[in-house]
Amino acid sequence: MWNGKPKALRWLYPGMRVKRYALAAALGFLTGAVGLAGLLPPLDLPPGLAWGLFLGGGLLGVLALRSMNRSILAVLTEPEEVPERVYVRRRLERGPRVVAFGGGTGLSRVLKGFKEHTANLTAIVAVTDDGGSTGKLRTAYGLPAVGDLVDCLAALSDHPALPELLAYRFRRGEFGGHTFGNLFLLTLHEAAGSFAEALRQANAILNLRGQVLPATPEAVRLRARFQDGSEVEGEEALRAKGGRVREVFLVPEPKEVMAEALLAISRAELLVLGPGSLYTSVIPSFLPKPLREAILKSRAPLVYVVNLMTEPGETDGYTAYEHYKAVAYHLGRRPDVVLVHTAPIPEAVRRRYAEEGRYPVAFDPRPFAVDGVRVLTGDFREEGPLAQHDPKKVVQALLGLV
């Protein structure tokens, strides 16, 4: 109801550009019906007249309905785009149910690859980042990290302009240094009074191919314990200290995860960890206990995508096997499959990363064979000046597991 009247009566308002087409369609189909009836007793109209009324009326009715549909669709989108959008959406709705864990650039790039094959996609994102714009907003408003969530929201959006809009960074004033996407989530959080509800609203507003959820809607922080027994709190502090990490955990221990995340894991046909920073993106994305328990119960193939390069202060000198062992230790379950890039990385790219203290992750198949873990090897790097995973190559390999 609307102001005491059925909402359907709005179609009768002046200027809707619907009534004229509806009347024309009704007149056309009525004329066609008269023509059809004229072919039979008792009317027995001349055959030429009867067929003329039937075909002419039917054509008028079809054209009127077409015009009415275009008039309505023109308010929402370009009518010519509708068939393609409907086809793509229906095809993607039949795609596999995939849940991807992680954060940062690595996860968002894989999501871009998956969204071309399925709309049944859930990203579960780490919320422990404490640097840059995200860190400032965490300190000021006490909310979980929003930066990686924004990247994943942009990755799954159908609108081509959205990634650039969400990534826009203000250069001056009190918003200086903050991105529009971060402020967008902050605004939803302040209005809803709940970070979980803010993400639900963001998913609905942005019309995603899938959904983006936080690992926990609570404002937790990452704490790291090193092999020498020392501890630090915060992702920035972990990288700054350096050294071998023994384990990471969340403080305080989160008590809440979103029901949508648990449902997605229980229904998943494929679970993907990474790629991304081992201790500050991949592992924190599944550390909340309810998520780990759901992954342990899942029968879907669990795949870990190993980074191409080591990260200074976090995984210096780590091999692919050491990456995998860290994931298995924190999860309490071995990944079923580990995806490792084994093709040569161009010398120019290697030198560029070496200046930052980053080197290709070494791979030895023997310890994986001892553990009985399947390894997918090959060339998964995107062509260009960077050492990044190619979303198409990675997703094609992963979809072969479903």
From TrEMBL:
It is found in: Cytoplasm. Keywords: Cytoplasm, Membrane, Transmembrane, Transmembrane helix. The keyword Membrane applies. The chain crosses the membrane at residues 21-42, 48-65. Pfam families: CofD. Belongs to the gluconeogenesis factor family. Required for morphogenesis under gluconeogenic growth conditions. This is Putative gluconeogenesis factor.
